[in-house]
Design brief:
- The complex is a heterodimer of chains A (302) and B (237).
- Helix content of chain A is 33%, strand content 33%.
- Chain A has ten helices and 16 strands.
- In chain A, the strands form three sheets. In chain A, strands 1, 2, 3, 4, 6 and 7 form a six-stranded antiparallel sheet that branches. In chain A, strands 8-9-10-5-11-12 form a six-stranded mixed sheet, with helices on both faces. In chain A, strands 14-15-13-16 form a four-stranded antiparallel sheet, sandwiched between helices.
- Chain B is elongated, with a radius of gyration of 21 Å.
- The longest helix of chain B has 35 residues.
- In chain B, helix 1 packs antiparallel against helix 2, helix 2 runs antiparallel to helix 5 and helix 2 runs parallel beside helix 6.
- Classes of the chains: A alpha+beta (302), B mainly alpha (237).
């Protein structure tokens, strides 16, 4: 089955698509009716606060967690019936980044490559060189940063069409982050593979991602191209009495601080500002916003 | 610690054997000047029970440890995500872990039994070496049951130490139950220790090699990996 997404004037084939995906843990709903669309060949940043449902979503896509309800397809394959085929074409770096302690990097590579037909020793060597990974040291003796790099190497060399990376740069120093991100971009441009990654570092996502999905309390609150976000959203600041406090289809979020109201609006900010003026407000400014402001407005409220 | 105590007990039993006499009329007594024949005969008996007991204890201990570690360790070390995102069906990991551990167990039992037979054979004739496969079979089935139970508990409880503790608890409980039913109701309730102790009959041609109990335990040994698989393929990581 061919799965695609229409966004703006473009049609995208999808590497990942979910529909009404839900996961309950006893009384807790970790993922709530999630409908996600990750276009093929793109870098997709998956954002959310701690416990928002990012890791659970990724685990569902990899067959590590069974969804309570809903559907998900990865590389056009159903996650429940084609788990093994999906895993052959997908690589994963987990948040914990735990591998076998007694294995050296070389042994981990030897162990791992036996499972994948598309394994690239050249990519492994390039990664090891670029990230300065100690190859003969046992995993338990590596620093947290080097462990992360080994996980990245194994994921990259696998030759997967889709990389699912759960907070891949956590624990890395700024130089290593820079190298990993560069590797990301090179890998994606060179091979056209899809990178679906979660991160708390908004600046990283801002730099490398083409698409962004923001999840809050298990629900997807935003999914857009990053350049669309930059072009589309505006922050309208206003002061006055009895200003509207509710969200509409145009107003994404409303916050109030020291008598000043901030409206994150999409589409036609000037007309919205004019409407506020009509209600007796004084519009302080209309400013373009970046990913950070959008994220904070969407998930940082209350 | 347990192993040291067993070794010391065995050594004392072994050394003291020729000097202890048992007579149904006179009871236990000490023989201060045993003949060479008595010494060899007693040491053979001591070795037989000592080595047999050591084999049985080693097999049970190894089965407990192998059962706890082969999949339970993945939970402890947090490597399960790494393992289960390899492109294989989850059942593959259960069967590979089971097959490798069972092969290790079988190898260990075979070496231990061969060593025991070799030691006994060097002390004189009378060891029915043609029956040693039966002894291996008894020990192997007993070990496989203990291994399977421990592996299953480690997977259900997602922790090797907890799995080992529960498995040990169930093992001891079933021994107590067997003893209690036997004592109070005078009904023979088969226990794993019976099975393992039966292995010593391998040296006695008058005893049956394969019994009904062995078949029952073998079915249980085969059922545990199937149960483990059914849990392992379903749970959330």
């Amino acid at each position: 089955m061919h799965v695609s997404l229409e966004a703006g004037n473009a049609m995208y084939d999808l590497a990942v698509s979910t529909r009404s995906l839900t996961k309950d843990y006893s009384a807790t709903r970790a993922v709530d009716s999630l409908s996600l669309h990750v276009p093929r060949g793109t870098v997709y940043g998956f954002l959310g606060r701690n416990g928002a449902g990012k890791t659970t979503t990724m685990k569902i896509l990899l067959g590590l967690v069974r969804p309570t309800s809903g559907f998900a397809r990865v590389l056009e394959l159903d996650i429940l019936s084609h788990r093994r085929e999906i895993l052959e074409r997908t690589s994963f770096v987990s948040e914990s980044k735990r591998l076998y302690d007694s294995f050296t990097t070389e042994q981990l590579i030897r162990f791992r490559r036996g499972f994948y037909g598309n394994w690239s020793s050249q990519v492994a060597e390039d990664c090891a060189r670029a990230l300065e990974i100690p190859m003969t040291q046992q995993f338990r003796k590596l620093s947290h940063g080097n462990r992360t790099k080994v996980c990245m190497l194994l994921a990259m060399a696998q030759g997967a069409e889709l990389l699912i990376l759960d907070e891949p740069t956590t624990g890395l120093d700024p130089v290593a982050i820079e190298r990993v991100l560069k590797l990301f971009v090179e890998q994606q441009r060179g091979s056209g593979r899809t990178i679906f990654f979660s991160s708390h570092q908004l600046s990283e996502v801002d730099r490398v991602a083409e698409w962004v999905g923001i999840i809050d309390r298990g629900r997807l609150v935003l999914e857009e191209r990053l350049d669309e976000i930059r072009a589309k959203y505006r922050l309208v600041s206003a002061t006055g009495n009895s200003l509207p406090a509710q969200r509409t289809c145009q107003v994404i979020s409303v916050t109030e601080s020291s008598g000043e109201w901030s409206y994150l609006v999409t589409r036609d900010a000037d007309r919205f500002a004019a409407e506020l003026c009509g209600q007796g407000a004084r519009v302080v400014g209309i400013a373009p916003v970046g990913l950070r402001e959008v994220f904070l407005h969407l998930v940082g409220k209350g | 610690m347990l192993f040291s105590v067993l070794l010391i007990t065995f050594a004392i039993f072994f050394a003291a054997g020729p000097f202890i006499k048992h007579d149904s009329a006179a009871g236990w007594s000490i023989d201060r000047s045993p003949t060479a024949f008595q010494i060899i005969s007693a040491w053979r008996t001591a070795l037989w029970f000592g080595l047999g007991g050591l084999c049985a204890v080693l097999v049970v201990m190894a089965a407990f440890l192998l059962g706890a570690s082969c999949l339970g360790r993945e939970f402890d070390y947090g490597t399960l995500e790494f393992l289960l995102t390899l492109p294989r069906h989850r059942a593959y990991f259960v069967w590979v872990a089971w097959a490798v551990s069972i092969a290790e167990l079988l190898l260990m039992i075979t070496l231990a039994v061969l060593l025991a037979f070799w030691i006994l054979a060097t002390l004189g004739p009378g060891v029915y070496t043609w029956r040693f496969p039966a002894m291996i079979l008894y020990l192997f089935v007993g070990g496989a049951v203990v291994f399977g139970l421990t592996q299953f508990m480690a997977v259900v409880l997602r922790n090797s130490v907890r799995g080992l503790s529960w498995s040990l608890g169930i093992f001891l409980l079933h021994l107590f139950m067997a003893f209690a039913i036997n004592s109070w109701a005078n009904v023979h309730f088969p226990s794993l220790v019976d099975l393992i102790l039966e292995s010593r009959w391998a040296a006695d041609p008058t005893k049956p090699v394969v019994g009904l109990a062995l078949g029952g335990w073998a079915i249980l040994a085969a059922a545990f990996p199937i149960l483990t698989r059914s849990v392992f393929v379903r749970f959330d990581v």
